[in-house]
Design a protein that fits this description.
Blueprint lengths: L1 H19 L3 H13 L3 E10 L2 E10 L16 E4 L13 E3 L1 E6 L7 H13 L5 E6 L1 H4 L6 H17 L7 E5 L5 H10 L4 H5 L2 H10 L5 H15 L5 E3 L5 H18 L13 E3 L34 H9 L17 H14 L3 H8 L4 H28 L1 H30 L13
Parallel strand pairs: 5-6, 6-7, 8-9
Antiparallel strand pairs: 1-2, 1-3, 3-4
Helix pairs in contact: 1-2, 5-14, 6-9, 6-15, 9-10, 11-14, 12-14
Bound molecules: adenosine monophosphate and tryptophan.
Length: about 450
């Protein structure tokens, strides 16, 4: 180990010297070093304290397949050497904060599963990473939708991101359809994605079954659009609920296939970065209030199966009062015959921010009748400041429009760059000069 690092440091010193002399060999040498040490992820952490910048280099064994990444320690920005890049060998590797991208569909209102599985971790990690959060409205039309409510649902979802704690000064918030590169890259990726990869997608099979005869091509193609969403931003991490793991694996497969097919010449930089899933342990799968074995979802017909983030205290209480329970005594987490108990304890733990042990000590011996009002109270207390902030944000239209315009502008910059790289790698003839405007 020590020997390997001495060799690596020596290589880096020589490479930096060559780079200073303007020699592209320096860049290639750095790339070689990163490749040789491919069993390790070398991370540089930069800490700014009292106006002094300190660099700390650490190494970690790299995982081979999709592994949940662990949020980096102590709020120090996690830095990465970006792999995605152009088609030449002259550019230098870009050193930047790890980038996070995620999104939620604006189909109806957001629920506790979206919040605990996804949005809450976007918020808690936003100081650490370079964040891009979009409202994925193009995904919302993959099932039959109502044009009258799409734009309202979209703006409400964006307001909800901010109400849940996404701070636009730290994170970019935008609407997917405002950044046209998403649709365009999806088409390019469609043409290199084998149909049988999509036929394996569990979510497609489940949703197609629900939609009966009315299944559009978009539903089948949805994971390719999701791959485009992620790959456009060279995202390192994608915080999602457990149900999206398979789509993340597919995204990595598509990125690898594209890179292998179009960027395999010596010296060519890869177009796409392979992202990692960021999946929390608690809240990764919030289940229906009516059936502890199926996921809480926006599309379930019965509104009593979910807690919407905008439900009033009365509605929350009555949904929890009427939720499915069992005939066992007391409450326990790990009894496979008690999925409802596990789900409600998970929710209680998540909204009270306590450990499993603390929760069991407090409520383990309670009956359902005593536990349910306690749970309702905890959920209401957790959601109430979010609902309050939501109303404020919704009333300030100018503010929200500005947030979304800034988000789009920042997103366009990165997305257009990656799209350009992808088109160049595939051999498209790109315009050389700006097009003249029609009079
Ligand atoms: P969707 O509502 O399908 O757009 O999902 C948006 C995000 O919420 C994704 O990251 C999902 O994994 C997450 N999510 C959706 N439903 C649940 C659930 N019941 N439990 C945990 N996470 C969920
Ligand atoms: N498919 C995701 C879901 O239904 C939503 C989504 C679309 C997404 N594009 C994304 C999530 C990109 C993360 C990153 O939950």
């Amino acid at each position: 180990m020590k020997f390997q690092f001495c060799v690596i440091s020596l290589h880096i010193t020589i490479a930096l010297a060559l780079m200073l002399l303007g020699d592209s060999l320096g860049y290639r040498l750095i790339k070689e070093v990163l490749k040789t040490s491919s069993r390790y992820t070398i991370t540089t952490q930069v800490e700014v304290r009292n106006n002094a910048v300190r660099y700390k280099r650490t190494s970690r064994l790299r995982q081979s397949s999709v592994e949940d990444a662990i949020a980096d320690d102590e709020g120090i920005p996690a830095i990465t050497v970006a792999e995605g890049g152009g088609n030449g060998s002259t550019g230098f590797p870009e050193v930047r904060r790890k980038r996070v991208l995620s999104g939620v569909q604006p189909t109806g209102s957001l629920h506790l599963g979206n919040y605990l599985g996804a949005i809450r971790q976007w918020v808690s990690n936003q100081d650490t990473y370079d964040n891009y959060f979009c409202v994925v409205d193009l995904h919302a039309i993959t099932a039959p939708h109502d044009p009258k409510s799409l734009s309202r649902d979209t703006i409400q979802a964006a307001a909800m991101y901010v109400a849940c704690g996404i701070d636009p000064s730290k994170s970019k918030v935008f609407i997917q359809s405002h950044v046209t590169a998403h649709s365009e890259l999806a088409w390019l990726l469609n043409c290199i994605t084998p149909i049988n990869w999509l036929e394996r997608m569990i979510q497609y099979k489940e949703k197609a079954l629900k939609q009966g005869d009315n299944v559009g091509v978009g539903l089948f193609d949805y994971p390719v659009l999701m791959a485009a969403d992620i790959l456009l931003y060279q995202a390192d991490l994608v915080p999602v609920g457990e149900d999206q793991r398979q789509h993340l694996e597919l995204t990595r497969d598509i990125a690898r296939r594209f890179n292998d097919q179009f960027c395999n010449k010596r010296g060519k930089r890869k177009t796409f970065k392979e992202p990692n899933a960021l999946i929390v342990k608690e809240g990764a799968r919030v289940m229906s209030l009516q059936d502890g074995t199926s996921k809480m979802s926006k599309s379930a017909e019965n509104d009593f199966s979910r807690i919407n983030l905008l439900d009033s205290p009365d509605v929350i209480s009555s949904k929890i009062k009427k939720c499915k329970t069992d005939l066992f005594k007391g409450l326990e987490w790990d009894n496979p015959d008690r999925p409802e108990a596990k789900n409600l304890l998970n929710i209680y733990q998540a909204v009270t921010n306590r450990s499993k042990e603390e929760v069991l000590r407090e409520v383990g011996s309670m009956s359902w009748g005593t536990f349910k009002p306690l749970l309702a109270e905890a959920v209401i207390a957790h959601l109430s400041p979010i609902q309050h902030r939501y109303r404020e944000v919704m009333q300030d239209e100018a503010y929200l429009s500005k947030v979304l315009a800034d988000g789009k502008e920042a997103a366009d910059l990165i997305a257009d760059q990656t799209l350009g790289w992808a088109k160049t790698a595939m051999g498209f003839y790109l315009p050389k000069a700006p097009l003249k405007l029609l009079k």
